[in-house]
Each structure stands twice: as structure tokens, then as C-alpha cells.
Amino acid sequence: MTETAVRDALRAQRIEVPSWAYGNSGTRFKVFSQPGVPRTPEEKIADAAQVHAFTGVAPIVSLHIPWDRVDDFAKLGSYAAEQGVRIGTINTNVFQDDDYRLGSVTNPDPRIRRKALGHLLECVDIMDATGSADLKLWFSDGTNYPGQDDIRARQDRLAEALAATYERLGDDQRMLLEYKLFEPAFYMTDVPDWGTAYAHCLKLGEKAQVVIDTGHHAPGTNIEFIVAFLLREGKLGAFDFNSRFYADDDLMVGAADPFQLFRIMYEIVRADALRPDSGVNFMLDQCHNIEPKIPAQIRSVMNVQEATAKALLVDAEALAAAQTAGDVLGANGVLMDAYDTDVRPLLREVRADLGLDPEPMAAYARSGYAQRIAAERVGGQQAGWGA
Amino acid sequence: MTETAVRDALRAQRIEVPSWAYGNSGTRFKVFSQPGVPRTPEEKIADAAQVHAFTGVAPIVSLHIPWDRVDDFAKLGSYAAEQGVRIGTINTNVFQDDDYRLGSVTNPDPRIRRKALGHLLECVDIMDATGSADLKLWFSDGTNYPGQDDIRARQDRLAEALAATYERLGDDQRMLLEYKLFEPAFYMTDVPDWGTAYAHCLKLGEKAQVVIDTGHHAPGTNIEFIVAFLLREGKLGAFDFNSRFYADDDLMVGAADPFQLFRIMYEIVRADALRPDSGVNFMLDQCHNIEPKIPAQIRSVMNVQEATAKALLVDAEALAAAQTAGDVLGANGVLMDAYDTDVRPLLREVRADLGLDPEPMAAYARSGYAQRIAAERVGGQQAGWGA
Amino acid sequence: MTETAVRDALRAQRIEVPSWAYGNSGTRFKVFSQPGVPRTPEEKIADAAQVHAFTGVAPIVSLHIPWDRVDDFAKLGSYAAEQGVRIGTINTNVFQDDDYRLGSVTNPDPRIRRKALGHLLECVDIMDATGSADLKLWFSDGTNYPGQDDIRARQDRLAEALAATYERLGDDQRMLLEYKLFEPAFYMTDVPDWGTAYAHCLKLGEKAQVVIDTGHHAPGTNIEFIVAFLLREGKLGAFDFNSRFYADDDLMVGAADPFQLFRIMYEIVRADALRPDSGVNFMLDQCHNIEPKIPAQIRSVMNVQEATAKALLVDAEALAAAQTAGDVLGANGVLMDAYDTDVRPLLREVRADLGLDPEPMAAYARSGYAQRIAAERVGGQQAGWGA
Amino acid sequence: MTETAVRDALRAQRIEVPSWAYGNSGTRFKVFSQPGVPRTPEEKIADAAQVHAFTGVAPIVSLHIPWDRVDDFAKLGSYAAEQGVRIGTINTNVFQDDDYRLGSVTNPDPRIRRKALGHLLECVDIMDATGSADLKLWFSDGTNYPGQDDIRARQDRLAEALAATYERLGDDQRMLLEYKLFEPAFYMTDVPDWGTAYAHCLKLGEKAQVVIDTGHHAPGTNIEFIVAFLLREGKLGAFDFNSRFYADDDLMVGAADPFQLFRIMYEIVRADALRPDSGVNFMLDQCHNIEPKIPAQIRSVMNVQEATAKALLVDAEALAAAQTAGDVLGANGVLMDAYDTDVRPLLREVRADLGLDPEPMAAYARSGYAQRIAAERVGGQQAGWGA
What biological-process terms (Gene Ontology) are attached (chains A, B, C, D) (predicted)? Predict the structure, then answer.
């Protein structure tokens, strides 16, 4: 790839940020509140817009319903546009009502299943209002004890709800199905792995695609294999980016294993799926429990950019030659040459090309935004997972 | 072991229950409330007393400070006695104050370290008031990102706080140090494994002992090895029993891997550490997120009893003979013979000997206690991790 | 299920044993040889026949090519019949030739891919000769280093080889595709999980089915979920039974986690897939590195029988009622009641019904077979993985 | 640290290479032989000397007994000196004799324990002859099945053998005890974790130190924590460097997770333990199953150098300031700044300073050594784990 092509690709890259990253989050042990945390969807969007303002590649904000429910979504969209961003994926939430103690769409109780499905369909209504193209489905459904419920019957119920939701999608709308190994269910999760999500999506049709959350796998899982496999099948719809050392830690993407993130982005580049129109949505999904949220999002975007830049720098021709020759160390060496490169100077230039400060973290710190929101956002209820 | 000795051991067995198991608990995603959940330390003790009333082997209740702080601990002790139980271990909590965002006793800020130490010392005061023999220390301290703090400096701070607390202990008081691999810290935990806890306890002295929480290990860890090793070293102070499939799931002990629980109890029996005066404290530490709490505690006590009964039934002589002979399948077979035995009839007899209903779950269900507390405990603030 | 139905099911159960379990095996550190180990396919079959003679449910022997290649497979089949058993699945081996250093069917070198495919096709020829219905495919193919080869190109090559083999199958022949997370490949494996195997089998057609080797998963994987899911999809072709604490330990099935084996067998029973004509093949695939091989196989068969008996004893009606009612502890209790039952007396009766000694281990030990083969099998080359 | 100090440290760094890395190795599935593989200890040393010749920091070769047993170790030492290297650590092997099927120093059979101890003592004799300072002890001892042997009794036997060996050490000799979670033992390993090794070493005395093999941990273990902890305790004696994605994969160090290697080296630098006289021995212990061995060793040395260079570049003052201030992102950012730096130019300069070619891989490839040994080493028995 020519250097121009690399820069073009980096300038065109799009990373979606989640509205909930700017609210409070934590563990079951404690949610630490932070000064200046948003209290409304508008304030979340304003914060998200800061991330785009300083990075230039994050102009899309995902919403989470009901956390971001407003009376007038068109108005929220206009507000977003004023801030320089737009509304992206609609994320459903069927895990925070007392009714969902034993599951939502897979609950043994048909009344609760209907309620959950109603929420999913409502979210498609919201998509119509916001012009969102993607509906993200993550189900916390599962069981905590062997025998608690019937594994197979729950699949039947899941399939039914997915089909009903799929049916409701408009022509330009997609359904993105996320899998997760465990948490909050601790024995069995109804969509635990990519195979399950893939099998359901395959039956539903082309508008159903799989979401890879990089923190939702068993230890030792080779995530870039899944990326490559789903791309080959035309079934990779989106990423939820974050990083983890142990479970679903939801740390900043690239913080735990930057080499893994590079390998993932390499598979994206190799399959020409970086293009904004590739059908793959690159979203952050993280919890900034102890660090300030806007800087953490900026840093995360930068981490994705660095991994991408390195992936773009892989000498594809040399790599293919070494691979074909069975030159194990040579092929590995080509990949590592790109990874070992310091791409920060290149990214500083890309930012300058975009008319941005080459150092987003420092520029944001200097902007005084953090101090301003801390001073202004007094009173009210800080946003968090429960609100 | 003669059948009489087995029954004697089972009747004499003591399992400690935690006050917080009767309050609400959950995951970061949702805490589901349940009807009848206690609102005060007294109501928690009353519920714990039910577990003892139906099992006969759970007469001790652990407190958690500040969740169970009362003005008059002597009075709380009298209340417990009236309910037929007594107050046991005092569990400290230095993880739920906003000050502890970056740690408690290992926090880089000396003011916060002093505050955390103050809490530990206050808990020894409470032990004096309750007559508790054991102080349980679990630190959520750690870091989420590489570089966030200095690993070694944090050990220095930890050692200092431990020494100051140890100093404060009375002659008949012990300090029990718990380790945990991760959560809520996601990169590095200051006491992540038994080796760390052991090394600190060794330096502190005889009154410092290690706690094994069965859910706090990396995947694949052989917990019974740690049990055997610490018993050999005279450094096993207590268990926090629960079970897990993935992380620190805090499911009912014995629910995820009953064979593992049996192997653990076998090492206890083999080292003659089941006796109530052995210095090993057997406590439950669980979260009943979706199941009713009192029955879940009863079931957990029963699971420990069943594993213990099987462990007591191991034919020690035959086992030793097969081991000495290098008879791999024979020795494994001796152990499995005990495990494969259905010990429920034996335990029904043990309960009858104690004047109890042989079927604790059914007896509790028939008692109407659940309905009574659901009806009576209206209003007020249900107890939970945050209160 | 009536007691008669339970016994009928246990008598009708069929477990396939692998010829290679009777040869030497070990780890990369050491293969310990044992006296009496077979030197020829015939001697392996003779040993396998002992397992059937003492258990009555293991009349089928899998072959492994080239380890069990003979000039006249019809004659080998007759020999098996004389021993009271028959030849079952044909297992392919494309991992032990120097050519396969960088893979077999996914090798970057087309010459080696052709060679590997030739072996697969030859194995179908052998199936024609033996009358085997199932071709088992396990590929050790993968890479050790990132960049070593192209993940996606290897999938293309894999798909091509699978299609060519599928094409060659006769009307009553099936292709069983096994997946494995890692080993011997240490970075990426070409068929690492059930999703990959499932996706390929789906495209190939009805005669392609997935094999679940119980030791081939990442830590924490819920295997019974995969069983239930594949049965619902009609895509579960076979098991390779064994057990593990860490990696692919290949210990005796049921030895590491008997509760897990029970949960797996429960899903089988629940889907009515225990029947010999269900299309699910239950095979042992184990390495008896330090224990004597024939007794270890007998014990393994017994372990599967015990798990099956417990699964058959689950009170389906009570379970469904508790599940429908959302009674978490009740439903779990129904499952545990079956698991906690001592089914050894029942299995002794089933054996007596079959005209067998109720205690297979003791009966085999008394038979003198072990002493006889140790005395007779002197000289020659003991069978092992390399031969 | 000044740039001069960084270069000085890099020039002074010492990495020990293992004689067995140049022999054949593999998995239980297959050992692929390679052309030119050494047949004698001398040839292994000659190959190891190549690694030093091209990197300048690897002048020490570990021996493995009995694989490297010779009649005259003084002569072998002289041969090494002629090649430009010297003999380092003596590695014991008590896992490859049929007698060790059920263990060596922990075997239930006292005769076998004596034999194993005899080997350990013989290795100290060899140390006397070679002038080696370190005796490396790794025991494959453990059990495959629960009940197979008594966990605690095996600890007693282990302690006895360690004490007898310790007793035999000369004043300037050390004993390095390695731990490993599993393999080849699959249920319980007698020295499974650092805590066990540490506890034994503590009792033995100052000459007993712990070895960290980077591939010997449970998934999710924070290895740099162990490094920091043992350094604080003065008990870290040596590393066995390699890398892994799954189990003990024994890939090239830094190949699987270069960021982890950097974090480990940062703890080394932070504790001033990089100095050759720090008492910490940095050794490679790897298996080059599919890649050529000498280049793989050179690449591994380079990987350690790169991680070290980055660790040396960490701005210690800025890091401490951010840590003290509780600036999570700032502190992490300081660490990442060093990690993100491309240190290959710096290392090229360090090599030039040493009079070496700045590109060791290319220089070795050009040297023709690989072709020469492939041509010359014809006939004889290639070295491997079994010889």
C-alpha cells in the first residue's frame, strides 16, 4: 500500500462511540462517580462530540434504549448534528427490569418474552426516527444453575424473538447479534459464542449479522480467527471494542494486548473491510470505572488508529511471498516489522491533514472542557447503567 | 473411620454463614430485589438463624462492617443468642467509599491509606465488643492499567497496613488474609494469589492466616493442592465457600463442581482439620442473585455436608495401600467409591439424631417463614452491598 | 422414564473404543512403555474385545490409518468378528509425516495438500472395505506464529479438501469433522471450535456432521450447550470422550469432572439421542499414559454408563414443571437428585441381565488376560502414536 | 536514564541459551526433524555460539543432563571457550526414565526417589567440573488422577530431596527451583506455582531461588506481579523465557505477547535487576518445532533486547509523578510511550558499537552456516529430547 493510500485510509476511518461511556460505570462492588458526568442524552452527545472534535474519526454516537430515550428523537438528531456528530446504532436493553430475572426473550414466562420483544420492536421504531441503520442485540439471558431451565427450549424462544424482530426491519436496516460467554449468567448463556450467533443469523437472512465484542470470549480464544472467518462468510456486522485481562473487563481497547488489536485490524485490512462502506461497524464499548471518561475515549480511538496504521503498513507482498515459501520466521518477521513501527508520527501528520491538533490528549486537556462540565453539571442525576 | 465416627464428625461440623447472603446482591448489570429481604442486621441474623434451625450445623454468623454496623454490638450479640446463633468473623470493607477509587491500604495517597487502616482497627474494636476471634481482610486494591501504579510500592504499603493491624490484635484474635485473582481490579490485584497472602502472613506471625475463597483462582487452579499445602504449613485459616464456572460467580458451593468440593473436603479430613477446634473456619460467601436466599443457604450447607460425608467415607487404609503400590486406577477407584456413594440417607439420619427434620429444604418451605417475612418486611431499605 | 425403560436404554447403549488406546501413548516429555502392549492391529482388536467382554456395551472398534493399515481389511473385519466386536469409524491421520510440518490440507504447498487429500480418499476406500459408516477427520493444521500463513486462504484450502472428500462418500457414509482449540498448533488452528466445524458441515451437506471431543475446548466452555445446540440443528455426529483439567489431557472420561459428563449425557437423553440409531456415535479417545490400558478403558466405559444412568433417572416431568414455574432451586434440585443417586447397584443389575459379571474391573483383573499378554507379547514393536 | 546509560545497559545485558534448543523438539503428535541438527553436545555449543556471534549478548550456554553428558566436562568447557561462549546453568532431568512414571523425588517408591536424588547430586558434581553456579530443578512430578497419590506426603518427599541437594551445594552454587502448572502431570503437579517454589526456597535458605518460566502459569496470571514480588523478597533466581497463547507452548519469547514481555522487563529494570551481577539469570527455554532453530534463537534474543530497551526508556520520573498524582491515564501513557517507541534503530547502534552487524537475522542468513551444518552433519543421531 502506498503511503498516500495509508493516509487516505486513516483519514477515512470511522469509529463509533457509545453514549453510555460518558456516564458512570463500575463493578458490582462499587460505582465511583466522577465530576461533570452527563445527566441527559444531550450531555452524553456533547461529550461524545468532544472525542470527534479532537480525533476527527469518531463522528457517530450509539444510543442505548431506555437509557437514552427521549420524547423527540428527531430533535436529538438535530442536536447531535449541531455538535458535529450523528446518531448511529440503537442498542437494546432487556436486562434491567425486575421482570428479566430469569431472562428476557428466552424467559420461560411468555408474558415476559412478549414484553422483551416489544422492547426490541420499539427500538426499530426509534431507528426509523433516528435514521439508524443498525439494531444491536445483546441478551444477558442465560441460567445460573444446571437444570434451571431447558437449554434447547430457550433456543427455540430465542429463534422466535429474533425472527419477529427481523421481520420488522426496514430495507436498509440491519440486526446485529452479539454473543458473550458469561456474565451476568453464570452457568449457561443463550448466545455464548460466535457459532451460536452465526447459526441464528444465517437462518434469519442477510440483514442479520454477528457482532464481535472483543471482551466476550473464553481465555485463549483467537479472536482474529473469528474475524477472518466471519468476513469470509460475509457475516461480520460490527465490533464492540474494548480490552480485557480476565473476564469482560471493558478496559480501553488496546490497553491489555495491543498486539492482539493489531492482529485483528490486520484481518480487517486484509479483507478490505476497513472502508466505511464495508458493512463492518467499529464501535467502542467500554467502562471507564476509574479514569476520566472523555480522555479515555480519546485514548481508545487513538489506540484503534495506531493498530490500524500498523496493519496498513504490513508489506502484503513480502508477507504473501514468505507465507507461500513456508518461511515461518520470515513471514512472522514481516508482520512484526509493521507492528514494531512507531506510527505515532504518521498519525500526527494525518491529524494535521485533518486540521486537528496532532496530540489529541494534550489538546483536550488544554481545552478546559473537563473543568467546564464539572462546574456546570451540578445537580440532577448523573447518567449510569441504571438510568 | 467407623460409621459412628463419621456421624460424630458430621454432627460436630460447623459452617459459618455470612450476614450479607440474605441481602440483595447482583451483577453490575442489575440487582434484582426479592420480597422479604432484611433491612437491618437483626433481620439478617434472624434469617441466618433459620439456616441453623433447619440444618443444625450453622450456628455462626459473620458480620460485614459497615453493612452491619450497629450502635451496640453487645446487644446484637444478645439478639443473635436469642435466635440460637452467635456472631463470628468480622469482615472488613474498604472498597465502597469514593475515596477508595485507586485503592485503600495500597492507595498512593497517604491520607486514604490512614483512613483505610482506621477502618481495619475499628473492626478490631468491634471484635472486642462481639467477642469475635477472626478478622477477615479482603482488599479490592489493585490497578486497571499497566503503569497506573507501582506494583512494588503497593506491596510496601500493604505490608505496613497489615503490620499495624496485626499489632492491634488481641491474644485470642486472628487476622485472616484473603486473596483474589481479579475483580474489581482488572490489571493487577495487590493480593492476587495464595503465595502473596502466605508470604505476608508468614512475616506477620502465627495470628495471621490465609483465607481460601474457592472462587478466587485462575482457571485450572488445583484448589485442593493449595488446601493441602497450607494445612501442611499451618497457614490455612478459613474458607470462603462458593462455586464458579467462569470468574468469581459466587454461586452456591458445590453447585458448579461437586467433585472439586469433595476433593477439597477430602484434604481437610485427611489433615484432621474438620474438627471445630482445628483453626480452620468454614464459611459460605455467596451471592444469591436470582434464587431465594435462605433456601439457597440451606442448600449450600447441605452441599458442604454431602461433600464432607463422602470425604469421611474414603477408605483411608485402602487408599494408602493403593497409593503405596503405585496402583493408579486402584487408588483413584478408592476415592471414587466414596464420591459415588449416595450420602443423603446418612445425612438424613444425622439430622434425625440432631432432632431435625431430615429434609431441610422441604421443612423450611413448609415453615411459612418466607411468606411471613415477605408480608412483614414492608417499607424500609432492603439490605444489599451498598447499604 | 420407567425403570424398565432405563434398563433397556442402558443395555442398548453402545460405546465405541479406539484401537490406539491400547498402544503406548505419552506426552512430549516421555512415552512410558507398558508390558503386553499390542504390536499389531489384530492385537489391538483383541484387547478392545476384552473391554466389550466385560462391559457388554462396547462392541465397536475405531481404526486409525495408517497406524492400523493392513493388507486385507476384510480379513481384519473377520478377525474382529471372531473376537466379538466389529470395525467402526475410520480415523484419518494427516499429521505424522514430515511433509505436514506446515499443515496438511491447508498447507501452502499444493503438492502436500494433494498428498493429504489422497490419504483422506484412501480412507474412504478402506471404509468401503471395512463397511465403516463414518470417516473421522481431525486436522492438526494451524500455525505457530502470527503471520506465518494466511488465515483466510487456509479456510479456502480446507473447504476445497472437505468438498473433494465429501464428494467421494458413498450413500451410507458420513464425514465427521472434529474441532480443537490448540495443540499441536500453538497460535491458530484451522478448525478451532464448533462454529467453524458447523459452518463447513452445513455447506457440505447432510452427510457432514460435527464431532465434539470433550477435551478440545477453551477453559470455561459449556460443552453441554454445544451438545444441545448441535442436536437441535441435527449436526452432532459423534463424541470423542475423554476428560481434562487443563488442556487436551486425554484422561479417562468422567475422571476430571463427572458432573459435566452427566450434564452432557442429560442433553443426549433429553434429545432422545442415546438410541444406537440416533446418528450420534459415542467414542472414547483417551491416552492412558501411566495407567494400564485395558482396565482404563473398562473404567471409562463404566463412567459413561454411570453418567448415562443418572441422566436417564432425571425426573423429566418434575424438571419441566420447576423450569416452567421459574423455580431455580427446585429445578436444579431435580437434576441434582438424579446426579446424587448411586447408580452402581442399577448397573450391576444391568450387567447381570446381560450375563456379565457385575464388577467388570475385578472380573477383568481375575481373568489373567493382563498377565497372559505380558508374557506372550515379547519382541516386536509395541504400537504407539508413531507406528 | 540517560541515553548513554541505556546503551550501556543494553551492551552489558546477558541472555543464556539452552543447549537443547538446537536439537529436535515437537509435540506428542510429531517431532519434525530438521537438516543440520546437532548430534553432540559440542555441535549444540557450536550452534549456540552462532547466536552469540551475531547478537553479542548471549555468551552462556545451559546444559541439560543427561542429554549433554560427556566424559570430560572440563574439555567441553574448553571447547565452549574456543567457540566464544561458556557453560552456564546445569539443568537436571528426572523425567525421562521408565522409573519416573509415577514421579521422581516424590515417587511413592523410595528406591526411585533415591535414584532421582542421585541424579540431582551428580549434577552438582558436574557443576563442580564445569564451574557452573546454578543448578536448575524442574520436576515433572505429579499425578494424573485424583487419589492417585497423597498430595501432602509428596510434599514431604519433595522437601527431603530438596534439602539433601541443598546440603550438597558449594558456597558459590545456587539451586533454582522451577514451578509449572501442568504437563506432563494432568491432575496435580508437585510444584505448580510460585508460592510453592517460594515456600520451599524460603526454608532451604539463601542459595535456593525461584525460577519463573513465562509459559508455566494458569491463564490470566499476571506474571510481572510475580516478578516484582519475588524481587522484593530477594527470591527471584532466574527466568526461563518463552511465550505461549494456550499452555506451555514454548514459542519464541515475545512472539505471543510482546507487551507482556515489556512489562516483565520493566519490573526488572525498576528493581535494578538487569545488571549481570543482580543474581537474576535470563535464560531462553523454547521449542522450535517448525522453525529453524538458530535463527529462532537469534530472533528470541532480539525480542528480549527490544523489550529491555523499551523498559529502559520508560521515563521513571514522569511515571512516578503521575502515579503519585493518581493520574491513571497519564501514568499508563508514560508506560505506553516507551512501549510504542521503535527501538530497533537504537539496537542497531548498540550492535554496531559491539562491532556486530546491525541486522543479526540477515547476517546469519548470509553467513552460510545453516547450509554448512546441513551439509556436514550427515549420519549420526540428531539430538532431541529423548537423547
Answer: L-lyxose metabolic process; rhamnose catabolic process
Burial of D342 (0-12, 13-18, 19+ CB in 10 A): middle
| Domain contains D269 | yes
The verdict on residue A51 lying in a domain is yes
The domain that holds B33 is classified in CATH as: 3.20.20.150
pLDDT on residue A78 = 97
**Distance in Å from the first CA to the final CA of chain D:** 46
Check pLDDT > 70 for residue C250.
yes
The percent of residues in chain A predicted with pLDDT above 90, rounded, is 98
Strand A16-18 to A86-91 pairing = unpaired
Rounded to whole angstroms, the Cα distance separating C87 from B160 reads 69
- Render pLDDT for D229-269 as a digit per residue (tens, 0 to 9): 999 999 999 999 999 999 999 999 999 999 999 999 999 99
Q: Looking at residue C385, what is its pLDDT?
A: 85
Q: Is the Cβ of C111 closer than 8 Å to some Cβ of chain D?
A: no
Outline where DSSP puts E strands in chain C: 16-18, 60-64, 86-91, 134-137, 142-143, 174-178, 188-189, 208-213, 236-241, 281-284
User: Which helix or strand (DSSP H or E) is residue B156 part of?
Assistant: helix B151-168
What DSSP designation does A90 have?
Answer: E
- DSSP notation for D71-107: S-HHHHHHHHHHHT-EEEEEEP--SSSGGGGG-STT-
**C287-320 burial, b if ≥16 CB within 10 A, otherwise e?**
bbbbbbbbbbbbbbbbbbbbbbbbbbbbeeeebb
Cross-chain Cβ contact A95/B29 below 8 Å: yes
Q: Which residue of B has its CA nearest to C365?
A: B330
Q: Is B328 among the domain residues?
A: no
Amino acid letter, B6: V
Q: Judge whether residue D63 has pLDDT over 70.
A: yes
Catalogue the E-assigned strands of chain A: 16-18, 60-64, 86-91, 134-137, 142-143, 174-178, 188-189, 208-213, 236-241, 281-284
Number of helices followed by number of strands (H, E) in chain A: 14, 10
> What would the pLDDT profile of D79-106 be if each residue is shown by its tens digit?
999 999 999 999 999 999 999 999 999 9
Give the best residue of D29, D92, D141 to mutate against chain C (max C CB count within 10 A).
D29
Element (H, E) at D336: helix D328-340
Quote the longest CA-to-CA distance of chain B.
Answer: 66
Give the closest-approach CA distance of A383 to chain B in angstroms. Answer: 14
Instruction: State if pTM tops 0.90.
Output: yes
Q: How far is Cα C23 from Cα C17, in angstroms, rounded to an integer?
A: 13
Distance from CA of C127 to the nearest CA of B (A): 35
Domain span holding position C43: 13-314+358-376
User: Does residue A387 have a pLDDT over 60?
Assistant: no
DSSP string, B298-362: HHHHHHHHHHHHHHHHS-HHHHHHHHHTT-HHHHHHHHHHHHHS--HHHHHHHHHHTTS-S-HHH
Q: What is the per-residue pLDDT for B192?
A: 98
* Distance between CA atoms of residues D349 and D11, nearest Å: 10
- What is the total count of domains within chain A? 1
Kindly state the percentage of chain B with pLDDT values over 70: 99
Any domain includes A2: no
Task: Report which secondary-structure segment, H or E, holds D142.
Answer: strand D142-143
B376 by DSSP, 3-state: which? helix
**DSSP 8-state class, residue C251:** B
Alpha-carbon distances, residue B171 vs B126, B133, B237, D36 (angstroms): 15, 9, 16, 69
Cα first-last separation, chain A: 46
Cα angle D278, D281, D283 (rounded to 5 degrees) comes to: 155
Using the 8-state DSSP alphabet, how is residue B252 labeled? Answer: P
Q: In the prediction, which pLDDT does D382 show? A: 93
* Residue C141 CA, distance from chain mean position: 20
Reading the block at residue D69, the C-alpha cell is 553428558
- Residue B194: its chain D contacts at CB < 8 A? 193, 195
